[in-house]
Specification:
The structure is a homodimer of 220-residue chains. The C terminus of chain A is likely disordered. Chain A has 220 residues and is of the alpha/beta class. The interface between A and B is large, with 57 and 57 residues. The complex binds nicotinamide-adenine-dinucleotide (NAD) (2 copies). One nicotinamide-adenine-dinucleotide sits at the interface of chains A and B. Chain A binds a DNA duplex (30 and 30 nucleotides) through helix 1, helix 3 and strand 2.
DNA sequence: CTCGTTTTGTTCTCGCGTTCACAAACTCCT
DNA sequence: AGGAGTTTGTGAACGCGAGAACAAAACGAG
């Protein structure tokens, strides 16, 4: 129904609206919100039009009202239980991340295959054995899982999650994981992001190099 | 020259090729590589065709040769120096991330505004005051910077980075940062990813709900 | 050497997303 | 009340990316 590209931007608008609300702003135009969200105002209006007509012509949008409508559309008016698997460097950072709670997610369990970690408290939540996954998933009706294990373990963890009823996975491991139809996977990959930056950086360098060469060597 | 969508997939191919090479495979077809990378084989071939004709019809691609060609195109045949700013929960995880080094990046400095952190060793690299940014950037010719500070500090840090000569920024803070033309910014945002998953999760739930309602209520 | 098999590289078509441009709708001032 | 000024919501044009389909090229068997 709502285009995927729009869905990916709604959370950005939500964050921008929250920032505006915290700044005491009650009403904003599409131009204001667009610049706060870093997008084009026409795109913003078109995106919002998929949700309904929540603005007032000649006036703009009511910040709190629009915020609620977007939150409702995304589905973050209530908290989602989340499990994190793989409590190493990254898992610790994720578990300590306050943005989880404030944006509609609740970490209900931290799981790790390394039994030496069992019982360790991270941000007040105890680390439990990976084998507890099924029990926790069914007890808390967990639909969203986060994978922060090494790449080699990612597919196995994903399979276990799916078997336990998880239908959305956020994967931080640099590995392609395959899941049955109906299960969503999103991946976050630091090295891919850096490599994309490196590609553009290299092109900039070539560009400058050519300009310099042209300046020195004259017209070629 | 190369479409942006293709650039974003080249690192994935590179990783898949590395995995194949480690498995002792010397040659692969577009079908093999595509399934290892999780994409369609037609798309893969089209992507590779932007780089040149590095395959052999009827045979496939030489794994090592293709790997080198992609690495060269991305610009990761030599290491890129990187600075990380904000050595909190996430910054620690990033500094400890071994995938940095193995994929063409070298952390040359860890910076934090909190002077209590100065001197702390993280993965063998000492944390230094944020004000050392300019000196480090010019000494190591740093072009790529990573922001892992709170959102409120992100724009300031970005401005200082740009002034120090950084032209590519990877931003982990949940904030829109604006930079001059010629500077690239990529953002990684955990909560946005989770919210996208939540949206689809909610839709799945509605879908099931409707099916259940239809099954109970009969044809409506 | 020739023919069949395999697999690449490329052309073509379709659909999605972005952006422009403007009519409709609302407010405020006179 | 009416007109001027704003700002939304959307229709239409355009460009890019995905995928199917196929021709060209390499290889091996006979
Ligand atoms: N550290 C970072 O900043 C960073 C950045 C980007 C991506 N990543 C990726 O995230 C993943 C985790 O990185 P890390 O630095 O935290 O690694 P890590 O080695 O510190 O932690 C991995 C954890 O996963 C656990 N584990 C291993 N196999 C498991 C299994 N089958 N089930 C459950 N738990 C298991 C280990 O016991 C360990 O605690 C890696 O795939 C890495 O490539 C890390
Ligand atoms: N922890 C996570 O897993 C996680 C996940 C996603 C996003 N994030 C985001 O990453 C950022 C960092 O998260 P964190 O959990 O590491 O926070 P943190 O508070 O643990 O660390 C932030 C660090 O930045 C330093 N800092 C503050 N202002 C600075 C400045 N102006 N210049 C230099 N350094 C400065 C602080 O001293 C601190 O060490 C936040 O924006 C957070 O929203 C974190």
């Amino acid at each position: 129904m709502i285009p995927e590209a729009t869905v990916a931007r709604l959370p950005v608008y939500l964050r921008a609206l929250t920032a505006l609300a915290e700044g005491g702003i009650r009403t904003c135009s599409s131009e204001d919100l667009a610049s706060a969200a870093g997008v084009n105002s026409a795109k913003l209006r078109k995106d919002l039009s998929y949700l309904g007509s929540y603005g007032t012509r000649g006036v703009g949008y009511d910040v709190d009202y629009l915020r609620y409508q977007i939150a409702r559309e995304i589905g973050v008016t209530h908290d989602w239980p989340v499990v994190i698997v793989g409590i190493g460097n990254l898992g610790h950072a994720l578990a300590n991340y306050s943005g989880f709670r404030s944006r509609g997610f609740r970490v209900v369990a931290l799981l790790d295959a390394d039994l030496d970690r069992t019982g360790e408290l991270v941000a007040g939540v105890p680390v439990r054995p990976f084998d507890d996954l099924e029990a926790i998933a069914s007890e808390h009706a967990v639909a969203i899982g986060v994978i922060a294990t090494p790449a080699a373990a990612a597919q196995d963890v994903a399979d276990r999650m799916v078997a336990a009823g998880v239908t959305s996975i956020l994967n931080f491991a640099p590995a392609v994981i395959s899941v049955p139809e109906g299960v969503d996977v999103r991946k976050v990959d630091l090295s891919i992001e850096l490599q994309i930056l490196a590609y553009h950086e290299q092109r900039k360098a070539h560009e400058t190099g050519r300009e310099v060469a042209a300046a020195i060597g004259g017209d070629q």
